[in-house]
Amino acid sequence: MDFLVAWYPWLKVGHLFADFAWMAGIFYLPRLYVYHSQVPVGSAQSALFMKMERLLLRAIMNPAMVGAWVFGALLAATPGVVDWGAGWFYLKALGFCAVTLVHHHLSLARKDFAADTRRHSERYWRMLNEAPTLALLLILVMVFVRPF
Question: Given a cut of 90, is residue 1 above it in pLDDT?
């Protein structure tokens, strides 16, 4: 695992890059769902939203999520990076898991929109758009402040 120490700065760059791309998608996709909820089923606008949602999820969010998990696991495996006795890492991991669950929920919802099924209201998507913000705040506090 000593090679991870030498690659640590690059692993951190990879992790942050993947995190930023992933979070951008996590914030934007529910917003697309808000707008998609406002257009008629079967319309040209609905078809355009379906294309945008699919591309955002498949071309940006999914690869970024995988990158965030892979680079994060490599960082956690790097000797000296994580104090496994401290609680901050576990809360950070909980926040990361929460973002992953939101991602999967958004992914399932995209399939509903692709079938022109609207299970949730515009208001639901507006409210869900706030959940990743709280998870991101938790993650950032745990990584940079490390309160315990």
Answer: no
Close Cβ partners of 103 (under 8 Å, ≥ 6 residues apart): 22, 26, 61, 65
SS3 of residue 48 by DSSP: helix
Q: What is the dihedral of CA 119, 46, 29, 115, to 10 degrees?
A: 40
| Domain extent at residue 45 | 2-144
Domain total of the chain: 1
Number of H helices, E strands in the chain: 6, 0
How much is the pTM? 0.93
How many CA atoms lie within 13 Å of 3's alpha carbon, on the beta-carbon side? Answer: 1
Q: Using 50, 70 and 90 to split pLDDT, how confident is the model at 23? A: very high
